[in-house]
Structures are given as C-alpha cells and as structure tokens.
Amino acid sequence: SPCGFYTGFDSDNSSGDFSEANHKVAEMLDLDPHQSNRSGKHNGETEIQENGIKRHRTSLPAPMFSRSDFSVWSILKKCIGLELSKITMPIVFNEPLSFLQRITEYMEHIYLINKACSHADPLERMQAVAAFAVSAVASQWERTGKPFNPLLGETYELTREDLGFRFISEQVSHHPPISAFYSEGLNKDFIFHGSIYPKLKFWGKSIEAEPRGTITLELLKHNEAYTWTNPTCCVHNVIIGKLWLEQYGTVEIVNHSTGDKCVLNFKPCGLFGKELHRVEGYIQDKNRKKLCVIYGKWTECLWCTDPTTYETYKKNERRGGEQKKSKPSEDVIKSENDEADDMPEVQDTVQFIPGSKLLWRINCRPPNSSQMYNFTSFAVSLNELEKGMEAILAPTDCRLRPDIRNMENGNMDVASKEKERLEEKQRAARKERARDEVEWHTRWFHQGTNPYTGTSDWLYSGGYFDRDFSDCPDIY
C-alpha cells in the first residue's frame, strides 16, 4: 500500500507518551555516526552511463539496524482502546521513506502501462492493466517497516526520463491521513492518479489496513479509463514472532469505455497457508461473458489462460490428475517456508496451466535487500538526493525531511529527535491556525469528483512543474 500498514500511527494528536522509546533506540543501537555512509560515494553523486542515462544508486548509505531488541507489543499494550491514529511509534519500526515515496512504488512496473498503451486489442490492454494493479502491491512483500507519516503539505516528485514518466504527490489531509498523487507519461500517452487513505484496525495479533480511495489510469491514445481500489493489507505477529504480511479482498478493475471488467480475488492465507499470496480472477465483457482467467501470486507472477482450458484443468485436478508445476526460484520457497511461529508453511508456488500466457513476473531484489529494509532496486533510489537537486525541488519534498535523511544515514538518535521536532512543529502550526481561524489550503490538488466513478476524489490542479514554489508552507 502500497498500504504502508502503520500509516496513521504518527499523529500530531499524540500525547508524546511513547516518545521515550525513541530515545532508548539510539542508546541500544550504539551507532557510530562516522561510519554511517558506507557507500563510498557522496550521497549526491550520480553516475552517468555510456548511453547518457543516469545510473541511480544501488544501496543505501547505511545498513538497517536489527529490530529484534524491540517489541511492538511494549508500545501497543499501552494503546488498547485508543484510536490507532493517535499513537506515535518509535522510529525503530520505520523504514527510511515517507508514505508518499511508498506510493510512488506503483511506478516500478511502468512497462506494463506502456504495454497496455501499445496493444490494439482491448482484452490485451485489460490484461496488462490487471498485471499493473497486482504489481503495484508486490513491492510490499516482506516490507514490514512502517513508512514515515507525511506531514500536512509534504510533497514528493519523481521524474524518470529513462522510464518515461513524472510523478507528483501531496499530503492533502492529516486527519484522516490522505495522500493524493498524479503521474503522466512523458510521451503524453497516459495519466495515472488517485488518493489513498488507509483505514486501520488493530485485531490484537494483527494490524489491518483497508485502503480507501480510487485509483484511475487513463490510456490517452485509446481514450480509455480504468478505475480500481487496492486490496486490504494485513500484518501478522505484531506482538510476538516474525512479522509477515498478506493482501486479501476483491479488486474490481473497470474499463469505463468498453464496459469490460476484471475481478481479481486476493485470497486470504487459509488453513496451512494453502492460499497464501494467491490471486485468482477473470476478465469479462459488458455482457458478463468470461473472456479469460487470471491466476498467480502477487509475490511472484501472474498468468492468464482461456476459461475452457482453466475449467478442464481444474476438473482434472479434482480427479487427482498429475499437475505440472512451474519451477519456483529457491529464494521464494526459502523465504516463504523459513518463517516463525504462526506463519503458515507453504510448499508450493504457482501451478502452471499448460498454454498460459505470462502477464507479469516480480523483479529480482538487489542481493543486499535484506540489509536495506527489503527494498527493491526502485525503492532504494527514491530518497536519493542528487547534486543540484535542492535548488529545484519544492521545499516540502520528502527528500529534504531531516528525520528520514538521518535515519537513512544511520544517525538514529538525531532522526528520532528530528521526528519529534517535526511532529511538535506540525501540532503548533495547527493550533495557530485554529486560533486565527485560518483554513489549511492544499497547494497542488483540490477536492472534486472522479469523472468516471462519480465518487469524491482529489484531483491534480496542475502547475507543479512550472516550479513556482513561492507560497509553499514551511513544514521542516
């Protein structure tokens, strides 16, 4: 989410009761600030490849610390009966990215949007869009760190000429926390936008984030618009054992031009973990005729086949016929089986149905990913602050947040103090606005109606890339 499952914890409503935990973090970690930048390169230096495309960084300046000395339960037990959005979690449970940067991870598999744009057949376009919707949650696999809650008015921009898009997001509301985003193809071939506000529930052993808000993808050449909402994200073992994550619920992708619909069922784990990570669904036309069946895992790959082949295969399976399995990669099996208590054992990966077409396969993570909060290569590059960037970024951009920057560099005690300072500054600003009866005005997005679903949505007002940042708020 990306659900960013703890989003909403770091509230400026917090009484600050839990902040002493933040100070203990630095003492326990005993990090040497002089060793924080292990990359050997200055944070701002960017290599240029021979073909003229910038090479983005491949690792973080400092490795992550161990969370094994900390118990989420020691924090949460003080919170029974409290609303989760009023709790400040110690920084040790964070990852060094803002939730706005986490949302940007939707764009990691942008090649699927390009594929959708290139197809003449609407069924193939829907298949590519369905794969894109599934790939958007794939980066969350094993990402159990909490992204930083964006401050009200915080922004994040990303332009990737090599990937052909630019992206802008803004935290448009603090209570409830709402993040709005807008992205466009540099070739004017697509627009992708939406707003996300996860509704959190604490179930004792797990935390569930139900993502509210509509996601819209417009393929301009085909004059088509697709809308959907993300599945529910749940993090298990928040009290004891190894944290693990599942996505479940039904995702309906509607093509508003043709009436085609893709219904994807993200299956809950089930007894013995039989259904863990599974996605199964179908595409139907406006007359409800099934055009194809989609199956796979959101942590691995997605296939499609025609409904008759699928039904025949399933019947055969029920009779106990011999099934071919796609050969899973060893690291997938290891990571799915090598879990702690209460983590269901998973022996199989995706069963391949002969004649199926591959729609999407997850990217390999960098070899040092486990020392970097299980980031993908794309995620590693998101908080990179290149030389000369500060001069052109909005002063509200996440890359300029001192708490995230210090955490990334391994300076945990400074990061913890900065986080507290920023939350206090946000509280004070809100009190001042209340006293002067001044309303908060968003800068780059406005509240409106989604033109396709008719529901309330946050829409991009335009103008960000003109770079007039004169009236941006001072939030850091």
Automatic annotation (TrEMBL):
One of its GO terms (biological process) is lipid transport. Residues 315-337 have a biased composition (Basic and acidic residues). Residues 405-439 form a coiled coil. Keywords: Coiled coil, Lipid transport, Lipid-binding, Transport. This is Oxysterol-binding protein. One of its GO terms (molecular function) is cholesterol binding. Residues 315-345 are annotated as: Disordered. The lineage of its organism: Eukaryota, Metazoa, Chordata, Craniata, Vertebrata. One of its GO terms (cellular component) is plasma membrane. It comes from Ramphastos sulfuratus. PROSITE patterns: OSBP.
